[in-house]
Amino acid sequence: MRRAPAIRFDTVSPPSGESLPRMDVPLWIGLVSPGGPTAPVPVESVEQFERIFGGEVLLGWNPVRKRNEVSWLPRAVRRFFAQGGQRCWVLGIPYTYGDPLTPELWVHEELTSATVADLPALAEAVVTRGGLLRGLHAAFSLTEPSLIALPDLSHGVVRPVAARSNPTPSAATPKEEHTVRETFRPCSSDRLPAPRLRVERLEVPAPGLRLLWTHRTSGANAVEVQEAGEPDFHQPGLLFRGAGHQATVWGSFPALRYFRARSLAGDQASAWSDPVALIPEIPEEHSFEVAPVDAARRTEIQGVQRALLRLCAARGDTVAVLAVPEAVSAGDARSFAEDLGDSNALFVPIGRRGIPPLSSSEQNVLSFGMLVHPWLVERNADGSLVSVPPEAAMVSLIVKRTLARGVWYAPGNEPLTGVIGLEPGLSRADQKVLIASGINVLSNEPKGVVSLTANTLTADEAYRPLVVRRLLALLRRLALERGQRYAFEPLGETLLRTVQHSFEELLGRLFARGAFAGKTPAAAYRVETGPTVNPPTNLDLGRLVVELRVAPALPLTFITLRLEQAGGQGLITEVN
Q: How far is CA 396 from CA 27, 44, 366, 370, in A?
């Protein structure tokens, strides 16, 4: 069979244009075992992280939580990739068991007292003479990360164990119940009395528990035993249900757990017995413990956070994700946020130098950081509950929203996965006070734990939304990238028109994707390369200035980024 020739038309989509710089890559800085790499490492999977850095690092025994305190860096990385993260950088801080958690771990001593304006030049000087930037200041050597978090910064005070105490649990005598009986109430309706419960730890032939109970009535024929991480049995788990007088439950119970039992007789159930606490033993090799954060440790944490804020401001394209220390009251959390920007805050000494408070001229630094509170309650692999800092969850949420929609969409009001609760819980009144203080409050809502806001720490309304700072970081990277193309072009009207068209096309594409406010391009952005910013005297000196005015928050309310190109060097500044 012969076929006649035919013509087929295929629809080919036009090229999407150049890709935007990545804004979904964070830098994690945390505690690792000694012997690993001392410089930041790119990581693209949990398996790769574990091959390079291993697992959790033991810090000591937590006498309040009755558990081992370990590093939070591995948990943060696991959460990041579980939430859809694709790539991150990790800087491991070598930590040996028993070492104090001093500020020196987190910073490069020579850069701690520098102002934002001086930091880049001083960091370059260290590298020029062959030095290696340490701690958070190693971020100067990276161009990819746009978020930085220190999940292990909020640990308490590491100190020697003063006295060893390994108490064994014992059952408290159940409280007698006094029932007010109504007239002619049948005796069969009386509630069963609570049983007596005892819990013993087993190590042979395998870790486990032996449950022993005694019914206080001959009518009971079964028992139900529950376990929980708190004495009020919030969200308890069923451990055993059945007949007899004892049972064995296999498994490891390393954290403080509470148990209670009730007798069963047909469809009747007794009151619950008094809780029985299973207190983990302090392992013999433990000679250090991690005590709660005190006033001195709080000051150290704030000092390191200020150093990170200065670093992010000096770079201009990164945001620090910070946390308030664990289990503080709403008033303490508010004071913590206010102290970060207080020019009269305490100086944090480090060697011959130290971290000074933010001066009155450095208040714009606060727009490069966000503070999150309270902490998250999650479940470990063994079923025990643990309270963890919220930076990892917030970073993962920001990255998830960035990958899905772009940096100009806020990460708020989206449930955090794997979170059971919050510690401490906050009332609605407390939440309002903390939000007014610049804290991003996590709240337990019907659809899950969500962030009620997504703001930076600054009081400047123009820069307070996180999406504004993130969008400006993206524009900074784009401007530097495009500016390099014109570094050695002949300076004249042709170049000015080319630059004007190039940036208008770029901002137009972002406007079409929803990056700016305003119904029209004129209300959303402007590009200025004319004589207002490039007078003839500047052109004669070989200096080219491009002003990008964008409205990321409100129409006709512009924030200006100025790109200056001179002698092959590019400089970007923000102009209010």
A: 12, 14, 21, 14
Cα distance between residue 489 and residue 568, in whole Å:
10
Over its length of 576 residues, how does the chain's per-residue pLDDT go in tens digits?
Answer: 555 555 554 443 344 456 889 999 999 999 999 988 989 999 999 999 999 999 999 999 888 877 889 999 999 999 999 999 999 999 999 999 999 999 999 999 999 999 999 999 999 999 999 889 999 999 999 999 999 999 999 999 999 987 555 444 444 444 444 333 344 444 444 678 999 999 988 876 777 889 999 998 888 999 999 988 778 887 788 999 999 999 998 876 766 788 999 999 988 999 999 898 887 665 656 788 999 999 999 999 999 999 999 999 999 999 999 999 987 889 999 999 999 999 999 999 988 889 999 998 898 999 999 999 999 999 887 777 889 999 999 999 999 999 998 999 888 778 898 898 998 889 999 999 999 999 999 999 888 999 999 999 999 998 999 999 999 999 999 988 887 777 767 778 888 888 899 899 999 999 999 889 888 999 999 999 888 888 888 777 778 888 889 988 654 445 666 666 555 555 666 665
CA-CA distance, 411 to 431, in Å (whole number)? Answer: 18
Q: Which residues face 157 on adjacent strands?
A: 291
- pTM (whole model) above 0.85: no
How big is the chain, counted in residues? 576
Q: Of 505, 492, 390, give the one whose Cα is nearest residue 151.
A: 390
Cis peptide before 37 (omega within 30 of 0): no
CA angle 115, 116, 117 (to 5 degrees): 90
Q: Is the dihedral angle over the CA atoms 358, 361, 362, 363 positive or is it negative?
A: positive
Give the integer Cα–Cα distance in Å for 314 and 182.
76
**CB-CB contact of 535 with 520 (8 Å):** no
> What is the DSSP-derived secondary structure letter of residue 490?
P
Residue ranges of E strands in 145-207:
147-149, 157-160, 196-202
Tell me the helix, strand and coil percentages in the chain, rounded to 5.
25, 25, 45
Please name the amino acid found at residue 157: V
Our CA angle for 198, 204, 205, nearest 5°, is 120
Q: CA 192, CA 269: separation in Å to the nearest integer?
A: 6
Burial class (CB in 10 A: 0-12, 13-18, 19+), 557: middle
Q: What's the CA gap between 409 and 456, in Å, rounded?
A: 14
> In terms of C-beta density within 10 A (0-12 exposed, 13-18 middle, 19 or more buried), how is residue 349 classed?
middle
Kindly state the helix (H) or strand (E) to which residue 226 belongs, with its residue range.
Answer: strand 222-228
Q: Give the single-character DSSP code of 300.
A: H
Distances (CA, A) of 432 to 43, 389, 422, 424, 451: 38, 21, 17, 15, 13
In sequence order, which residues have a C-beta less than 8 Å from that of residue 105 and are 6 or more positions away? Answer: 31, 93, 95, 135
Q: Which two tokens stand for residue 376?
A: 């998250």
Q: How far apart are CA 216 and CA 286, in angstroms?
A: 41
Q: How many helices (H) and strands (E) does the chain have?
A: 11, 29
The residue type of 418 is G
Query: Which residues are within 8 A (CB) of 74 and not within 5 positions of it... i.e. 6 or more apart?
Result: 49, 50, 53, 55, 56
